[in-house]
Design goal:
The protein has 397 residues and is mainly beta. The protein has two helices and 36 strands.
């Protein structure tokens, strides 16, 4: 019995020695501890990053990378494996591999568990926050990254990605999870195979795409391009142009310093402040407030409200709906030429607060109702067209 115990202890010791060798020089490997039905091991070590200024991390499982005021990067790996006893756990962990080094101008950390063994791996990396670039990829887990002065790229095989306090650009990709972005000092690019995307602050352009989830942007210091296969899009503030497209959801743009293009296959569109707007909805209402420039809004089933803003120039515009009313609120000092056409037949109504806008005579009883007129001497043409609704031309109070 004593001989068997000696053999067991020797086997465990040899397995631990093998793992320590795989981990590389300077790493520490803890003894196995038991947590319920799992056996747990912790591996710690360092990655020399000062000579290259860039760090690349590859792992399986959850990954957390955080910048701090340190000279070199360090890592902690927690591995959990379900086994009958310590000996079986050691056997399963024998081919668990950790490599560090430099290649192609990057310092790297590669965590590779055995393919045939089911393990839970949690990796934490703390590195110099002044690194120029950090790249992290996990084949099946969540990614958290924060407090880096340079750029960040993160990729997950199907987990969530959350980043904050990134000084440079951020490029984030996941095959099917949510993406949460806090404050990023440069451009932001997000791609999800089927999750929501939320951006608090982008210091440059924001390019956001998901196969099925909502998109929210609090503010972006550049143009915003947002596209989703099925979900709502909400953009609070963009310092340039906005392009938003959804296969089925609501689009809201509160303020854009450039032109707004919004397209939805089944939902409403609301723009609160923009210069030049183009909106198309296959089945929803459109509401435009504090808008100027060229306005093009079209919906197959829904009403349109357009409130023009005073003090900004207009351009040739068109508002049209196939089933609904159109209301245009016009400041008294805006120069426009109005063409209002109601194709509901002889009963089609155009109700105007402006006496300059008069009905054009028509010989046919069922002909469209056409109203035309020049406001403040005339200007760019505003064409309003409805079928099965009423046109309201209101004077702003």
């Amino acid at each position: 019995m004593k001989q068997f115990a000696s053999i067991l202890v020797l086997g465990v010791s040899l397995a631990a020695a093998h793992l320590a060798t795989a981990a590389g020089q300077g790493e520490s490997v803890s003894p196995l501890t038991q947590e319920g039905s799992y056996w747990v091991r912790t591996i710690q070590g360092s990655v020399a990053t000062s000579a290259v200024g860039q760090l690349r991390v590859e792992t399986t499982g959850n990954a957390s990378v955080r910048g701090m005021d340190v000279a070199e990067a360090t890592y902690t790996i927690k591995v959990r494996v379900k086994a009958f006893d310590a000996r079986e756990a050691e056997t399963l962990l024998q081919r668990f591999n950790v490599k560090t080094g430099t290649e192609g101008g990057w310092a790297y950390l590669k965590v590779t568990p055995p393919r045939s063994v089911s393990l839970a791996v949690d990796l934490t990396v703390i590195g110099p926050r002044a690194l120029r670039n950090v790249w992290v990829e996990t084949r099946g887990g969540n990614v958290q990254a924060s407090n880096w002065d340079g750029g960040l790229e993160a990729k997950s095989g199907g987990g969530q990605i959350a980043v904050d306090r990134i000084g440079g650009h951020a490029e984030l990709r996941t095959a099917g999870g949510n993406i949460e972005v806090g404050k990023v000092g440069g451009p932001v690019r997000c791609l999800s195979g089927g999750g929501a995307i939320r951006v608090e602050s982008a210091g440059g352009p924001a390019w956001l795409e998901t196969a099925g989830g909502e998109i929210f942007v609090h503010q972006a210091a550049g143009p915003v391009q947002a596209s989703t296969g099925g979900g709502n899009i909400r953009i609070e503030r963009a310092a340039a142009t906005v392009y938003a497209r959804t296969a089925g959801g609501l689009i809201q743009v509160r303020q854009a310093d450039g032109a707004v293009t919004a397209e939805t296959s089944g939902g409403a569109i609301q723009v609160n402040s923009a210069n030049n707007v183009r909106c198309e909805s296959a089945g929803g209402a459109i509401r435009l407030q504090n808008v100027a420039g060229a306005l093009h809004a079209s919906t197959n089933a829904g009403s349109i409200l357009a409130e023009l803003v005073s003090g900004h120039g207009m351009a040739n515009s068109m508002l049209t709906t196939s089933a609904g009313d159109i209301t245009v609120v016009i400041p008294s000092n805006v120069a426009l030429t109005i063409q209002a056409i109601n194709e509901s037949g002889g009963s089609g109504r155009v109700i105007s607060d402006f006496p300059q806008v008069r009905r054009e005579p028509s010989g046919a009883q069922q002909a469209p109702s056409i109203f035309e007129g020049a406001l403040n001497g005339g200007g760019p043409v505003l064409r309003v067209n409805v079928q099965g609704g009423t046109i309201y031309l209101r004077r702003a109070k």
